[in-house]
Amino acid sequence: MGLPLVRKMETDLWEIRVTITDGICRIFFTIAENIMILLHGFVKKSQKTPQKELETAQNRLKLFKEMNK
Questions:
Q1: Stretch 56-62: mean pLDDT, rounded?
Q2: From residue 49, how far is each of 13, 52, 65 by CA, in Å?
Q3: How far is the first Cα of the chain from the last one, in angstroms, to the nearest whole number?
Q4: pLDDT attached to residue 10
Q5: pTM value?
Q6: Predicted pLDDT of residue 46
Q7: What is the Cα 69 distance to its own chain's centre?
Q8: Is the pLDDT of residue 61 over 60?
Q9: Cβ–Cβ under 8 Å, residues 25 and 42
Q10: 68: burial class by Cβ within 10 Å (0-12, 13-18, 19+)?
Q11: CA–CA distances in Å: residue 61 to residues 20, 26, 46
Q12: Which end of the chain is less congested by CB atoms within 10 angstroms, N or C?
């Protein structure tokens, strides 16, 4: 899948966009052994992805990688 539903944010970190009644939900995820690992989700209220939300996903991705070494 690709835009407009899925967008690569950085190495091993992707974003999927889902329309819900409250707006647009964004879910950050990674792929490990053909399994989608959901890292963080939020309802987006602005055009740009908030840095705080991206940092949460990055931190969780880092933890996931450390646990699966």
A1: 97
A2: 14, 9, 23
A3: 27
A4: 94
A5: 0.87
A6: 76
A7: 21
A8: yes
A9: yes
A10: exposed
A11: 25, 16, 24
A12: C
Which residue in this structure is represented by tokens 């409250």? 22
Residue showing tokens 């450390």: 66
**Contacts of 25 by beta carbon, 8 Å cutoff, 6+ apart:** 17, 18, 19, 41, 42, 43, 44
Mean pLDDT across 34-59:
92
β-strand partners of 37: 30
d(CA 5, CA 12): 17
Amino acid at 64: F
pLDDT of the residue at 3? 61
Instruction: Give residue for tokens 């944010």.
Output: 9
pLDDT score recorded for residue 1: 56
Residue written as tokens 């992707």? 14
Please name every residue paired with 30 in a beta bridge, in sequence order, or none if there are none. Answer: 37
